[in-house]
Amino acid sequence: MKIVTWNVNSIRLRIDLLERLTDEMAPDVVCLQETKCPDDLFPHEALTRLGWEHVACHGQKGYNGVAILSRRPLREVRTQAWCERPDCRHIIAEVDGMEVHSLYIPAGGDEPDPAKNPKFANKLRFLDELTEWFAATYGPRDPLVLAGDFNVAPLPTDVWDHKKLLKVVTHTPMETTRLALLQQTLDWVDTTRAFVPADEHVFTWWSYRAADWRGANKGRRLDHVWVTPALAPRLTGWEVHVDARDWPQPSDHAPVAAVLAD
DNA sequence: ATGACGATTCAAAATCGA
């Protein structure tokens, strides 16, 4: 069972890249973020042609949007709203005895000060609400997968320069401490870091503004697949499909995979 | 320090991303 998460940055614009992802990564489940597509315009027919017969989507016009694509049937599809906002950022479905969550945590704007920047305040509240909800709703023995664009780079090696980014949104202590609290709720296993030592850099996002993204390599690890301890013994592999950042008209995020034994 | 890019939207310039 291979689970991929990808911030696609427009599902309609990048449907051909989703075909390439399907071919090159051969996932069983794909969690998408930033689909930027209302549900009535979601490209179901194109996805069916790619073999994605089971699709759950939760989208709106222009912004946000999440989806789950699956080879096998999805059950109990539902969505979650946060911070009393209409944003489409969280969809949940059961597949093969697991509950899969596709999650898009807010970016948070530029200024990392909740008193000055309402978007950053909203991001912190979003993280706090998630933490309270997971702690109240589930236990570590529930078989859960939490995958998505968390918009937080938790470890010093999850950014290209830890010191330079401490005051940059995605890597501030206000965000990383909150993400750590979320991780503690169910003793979530960060699947990429189950394989890559904490002193090694891993990135999943590179800005569109870099002239030479690969050469400069000023990346951040914003995309994550977490599993509960119930699923952790089945974890057998990981991948960041970095080459996807070089596909024609790419997303600025690379797909991230976790592999679980069947 | 600024801007660099890219997607979307009542279709031109603004907003958002991170």
TrEMBL record:
Cofactor(s) listed:
Mg(2+); Mn(2+)
Lineage, top-rank taxon, reads Bacteria
Provide the binding site for Mg(2+): 7, 34, 149, 151, 252-253
Swiss-Prot/TrEMBL keywords: Hydrolase, Magnesium, Manganese, Metal-binding
What residues does the record give for site: Important for catalytic activity?
Answer: 223
Q: Which GO terms describe its biological process?
A: DNA repair
Key word Cytoplasm present: no
One example of the protein's molecular function in GO is: double-stranded DNA 3'-5' DNA exonuclease activity
Positions marked as site (Interaction with DNA substrate):
253
Q: Which residues form the active site?
A: 104, 149, 253
Positions marked as site (Transition state stabilizer): 151
Annotated ranges, domain Endonuclease/exonuclease/phosphatase = 4-253
The record's annotation in Pfam families points to: Exo_endo_phos (PF03372)
For this chain's record, the cofactor binding note is: Probably binds two magnesium or manganese ions per subunit.
Q: Which residues form a coiled coil?
A: none
Q: Does the keyword Transcription apply?
A: no
Task: State the family named in the UniProt similarity comment for this chain.
Answer: Belongs to the DNA repair enzymes AP/ExoA family.
Q: Which NCBIfam families match?
A: xth
Full protein name: Exodeoxyribonuclease-3
Query: What organism does the UniProt record list as the source?
Result: Caenispirillum bisanense
